[in-house]
Design goal:
Helices cover 47% and strands 13% of the residues. It has helices at 16-34, 50-63, 74-86, 105-114, 132-149, 151-156, 172-175, 196-204, 209-222, 232-245, 261-275, 297-302, 331-334, 341-358, 373-394, 402-414, and strands at 3-5, 66-70, 96-100, 120-125, 158-162, 179-182, 250-255, 283-286, 307-316, 363-370. It starts with a strand and ends in a 6-residue tail after the last helix.
Length: 420
């Protein structure tokens, strides 16, 4: 698991009132878990059919050069986060995994024109089967496959990931013979990264899905105690909540890893859509170190004092890159020689955190032992639980999205859907 450094927070006083609030929040989460109201904590308890996932992924690897995920929001971000964090995107030998999470006609056409349909498998992900963007993509792709390859081959090259019992897509399993995978009924879209939704793309990319689930399961188990000393997730949640009460209502996630940039985007949806309700919430901002030291950090440093920043570092990288000497010593950069890129990256993170603290900008630092499937699974579960727990603190339901639903209804109306 990982370590958390609290040295640079501003509001350090976790008083008895907040300790009682934390205890009550954990009781609320436990109750929701035990009554099966929410299921995302149970992903390592046999609810995921990993053998089916792995066998499906092997069939895809044997029959495709490209694997295209059609989904939006939680149906795309979780899988994209896992694949970009753990897969070598520059590896030309393995299957190419694409995530198409919009209905931009130009981008969509560019992708379709760049792949061989005879060597492509599409994964359509929608729990309800009525997501406008994803269904539009599905209709275009199915018609294209039908015209180019025929009905039988078109059906064989599309996998539907949807509600196990209901929804618009589920009947197509029997009526047309589509292969299907499940989105558990008690796991909402933004909490479903560690279900078939995100795990199939991960498995196709060659990632160890069992290790992902193991890390997530162990984090879930250790996060259900109400002891703040033993429960880092709970301590993190209460620290963020206390700072929000003091006016730090912008939450920045800044991993010092390019491979974790999509993780910060996944976090933005998780935090914003879960907690932005009833006039409450913290605005999440994605950032990447050291890249954003040359853009957003100026605002973080000298702008409004309304931000709490979470840094994520990696203790052991997979690669060591030494910085060599240059043939002619030049003071402006010769000091770098003899160091490694990791040393520079860590120095950038630690110095930025120190400078922010001196400017009264609080931060927390999470350090992963290394970026692998086990630790990424644990990290994703950590943030899912922190989101749910903070919802308990705020007295809101972290698992609905009424604001999003209203926009969907207007879209249905404008597109002429019957009943709207």
């Amino acid at each position: 698991m990982f370590n958390i450094n609290w040295d640079n927070i501003i509001e350090k006083d976790v008083n008895d009132k907040n300790k009682e609030l934390a205890k009550k929040a954990i009781q609320g989460i436990k109750h929701k878990k035990e009554t099966s109201e929410i299921g995302f904590m149970n992903v390592n308890e046999g609810i995921i059919n990993t053998e089916r996932l792995i066998s499906t992924s092997k069939w895809i690897q044997d029959n495709a050069d490209d694997f295209v995920v059609l989904g939006i929001g939680g149906s795309s971000l979780g899988g994209k986060t896992i694949v970009t964090a753990l897969n070598n995107k520059f590896n030309k030998k393995g299957i190419r995994v694409h995530f198409i999470d919009n209905v931009d006609p130009d981008y969509f056409t560019d992708l379709l024109n760049s792949i061989d349909l005879k060597r492509t498998v599409f994964n359509v992900i929608s729990k309800s089967g009525s997501t406008a963007e994803t269904m539009a993509q599905f209709l275009v792709v199915y018609r294209l496959l039908f015209e180019k390859l025929g009905k039988k081959e078109a059906v064989s090259r599309i996998i539907l990931t949807t509600d196990p019992k209901k929804g618009a897509l589920r009947p197509l399993e029997n009526s047309m013979g589509f292969k299907t995978l499940d989105v558990p009924q008690n796991i909402g879209g933004r909490f479903c990264a560690l279900t078939d939704v995100g795990l199939l793309p991960a498995a196709v990319a060659g990632i160890d899905v069992k290790s992902l689930l193991k890390g997530a399961g162990e984090m879930a188990n250790r996060s259900l105690t109400d002891d703040l000393v033993k429960n880092q997730m709970l301590e993190y949640s209460i620290v963020k909540y206390i700072h929000a009460l003091k006016g730090y209502d912008i939450s920045v996630l800044m991993p010092y890893s390019t491979k974790l940039f999509d993780f910060s985007l996944w976090y933005v949806q998780l935090w914003a859509e879960s907690l932005g309700k009833q006039g409450k919430g913290q605005t999440p901002i994605p950032a990447t170190g050291a890249t954003d030291q040359h853009s957003q950090v100026q605002l973080f440093m000298e702008g409004p004092k309304d931000k709490l920043i979470t840094f994520i570092g990696i203790k052991e990288h997979s690669n060591v890159v030494n910085i060599p000497d240059f043939e002619t010593p030049i003071e402006a950069f010769s000091y770098l020689s003899g160091h490694t890129m990791k040393e520079l990256l860590d120095a950038e993170m630690n110095s930025t955190q120190k400078a922010l603290y001196e400017n009264k900008v609080p931060s927390v630092k999470i350090e992963l032992p290394k970026l692998d499937a086990y630790n990424l699974g644990a990290l994703m579960m950590f943030f899912e639980l922190a989101t749910a727990t903070t919802g308990e603190f705020m007295g809101i339901n972290a698992f609905d999205q009424p604001g999003v639903e209203l926009g969907k209804k207007y879209t249905y109306q404008m597109m002429g859907r019957k009943g709207y």
